[in-house]
Amino acid sequence: MRTVSLTQLRQNLAAELDSVIDDAEELVVTRSGRHPVVIVPLAEYESMKETEYLLRSPANAEALRRSLAELDRGRAPKSP
Predict the structure, then answer these.
(1) What string of DSSP letters covers 23-63?
(2) Which of 31, 38, 44, 67 reaches 20 to 30 Å from 1, CA-CA?
(3) What is the maximum span of the chain, computed from C-alpha positions, in angstroms?
(4) Which strands form 34-39's sheet, in the order they lie side by side?
């Protein structure tokens, strides 16, 4: 995760945004006296939101945890 100041971002906006996409890496933007923000590729943001949605349901969360545990043990999870 790279960090730039708001001033640096303004000076190199197109290049910085291209870097976020090309490198699939988050960019932290610091702002003097204010909270920083993070710029992420849209696909990554959508993936995070989908994961958040799926984990809201305790049953879904447990099923996902079991599947990941099976993958860690080298076994493919069973399809429903």
Answers:
(1) HT--EEEEETTEEEEEE--HHHHHHHHHHHHHHHSHHHHHH
(2) 67
(3) 52
(4) 2-5, 27-31, 34-39
3-class SS at 3?
A: strand
CA atoms of 17 and 41, how far apart (whole Å): 9
Residue among 19, 16, 21 at smallest CA distance from 44: 21
Question: Alpha-carbon distance 27 to 38, whole Å?
Answer: 6
pLDDT of 73: 87
* pLDDT tens readout for residues 20-75: 999 999 999 999 999 999 999 999 999 999 999 988 999 988 988 888 888 888 87
What single DSSP character describes residue 76?
P
Please tell me what DSSP assigns to residue 73.
T
- Render the burial of 35-72: b for 16+ CB within 10 Å, e for the rest: eeeebbbeeeeeeeeeeeeeeeeeeeeeeeeeeeeeee
